[in-house]
Design goal:
2 domains, 10 helices, alpha/beta, 31% helix, Rossmann fold, 4-stranded antiparallel β-sheet, 7-stranded mixed β-sheet, Spermidine Synthase, Chain: A, domain 2
Length: 281
């Protein structure tokens, strides 16, 4: 039986049995494979690194979408950078208060193949009238666009290949210029045990740009190496202090059904392990 062995870490890792290869190709930007695994359903990997699976994607997408939007409380315009599988777009669009979403994806082929082979991720989200898809480099977009947003979500790959630029000071400063007053940036930031250097570097780059920056976390089975960290950056420190009662009211009024996110999980996600707290001081 063919196996997929992830290459994220040089000396250890995870493997998946491949029941069927649904698609495999070297795109203009990266190597893309989508295959079926008995335990996790359809799995997508880019450049040897697992990006998403049908069975656990909901944890990642719910936490990176709902935490900032419920904390903000009046999100009308959202920018998603990356996220070509459509799962993030799906979760953002569950919020009826959101009037417009721009999604910037560098690789059209990722969107096309995910619409075909991972349709349960997007569930038709790409066809929503509130959505504007832009095929462009995310760094260039945030540094040149005149659009502004309440929430920016960086749903990037790890800082390898095309995703590396989305962890730079230039990207973060571009995001700041695109945020409306009281706006909020959240980003995928790797697993805290296996990729702690990424967390440290991100903290160092956010610190000069935002008055309130930290990380929150979730555990996602196929993202190995500790808890998954999400960076949080804003110039409105009150957003992180949103009370549990307010979060519960917003969640109830939204009518959104989730499988992982709850207001209690939202608040608890900001409680970080001591080794992470020490690392980002």
């Amino acid at each position: 039986m063919r196996e997929f062995r992830e290459t994220l870490y040089p000396h250890w890792g995870q493997f998946f049995s491949i029941d069927e290869v649904l698609f495999e190709q070297k795109t203009d930007h990266q190597h893309l494979i989508i295959f079926h695994n008995k335990e996790f359903g359809r799995v997508m990997a880019l450049d040897g690194i697992i990006q998403t699976t049908e069975h656990d994607e909901f944890i990642y997408h719910e936490m990176l979408a709902h935490v900032p939007i419920f904390a903000h409380g009046s999100t009308r315009r959202v920018l998603i950078v990356g996220g070509g599988d459509g799962g993030m777009l799906r979760e953002v669009l569950h919020h009826n208060v959101v009037e417009h979403v721009t999604q910037v994806e560098i690789d059209q082929q990722v969107i096309d193949m995910c619409k075909r082979y991972l349709p349960n991720h997007s569930q038709g989200a790409f066809d929503d009238g509130r959505v504007n898809i832009v095929i462009d480099d995310g760094v260039e977009y945030v540094n040149n666009s005149d659009d502004t947003f309440d929430v920016i979500i960086s749903d990037s790959t790890d800082p390898i290949g095309p995703g590396e630029a989305l962890y730079t000071s230039r990207f973060y400063s571009g995001c700041r210029r695109c945020l409306r007053e009281g706006g909020l940036l959240v980003t995928q930031n790797g697993c805290t045990f296996g990729q702690l250097d990424e967390v440290i570097t991100t903290a160092e780059r956010l610190q000069p740009l935002f008055t309130d920056y930290t990380f929150y976390a979730a555990t996602i089975p196929t993202y190995i190496g500790g808890i998954m960290a999400f960076a949080w950056a804003t110039n409105d420190s009150s957003l992180r202090q949103t009370s549990i009662d307010v979060l519960k009211e917003r969640f109830l009024n939204s009518g959104i059904t989730t499988r992982y996110y709850t207001p209690d999980v939202h608040q608890a996600a900001f409680a970080l392990p001591q080794y992470v707290i020490e690392a980002i001081k």
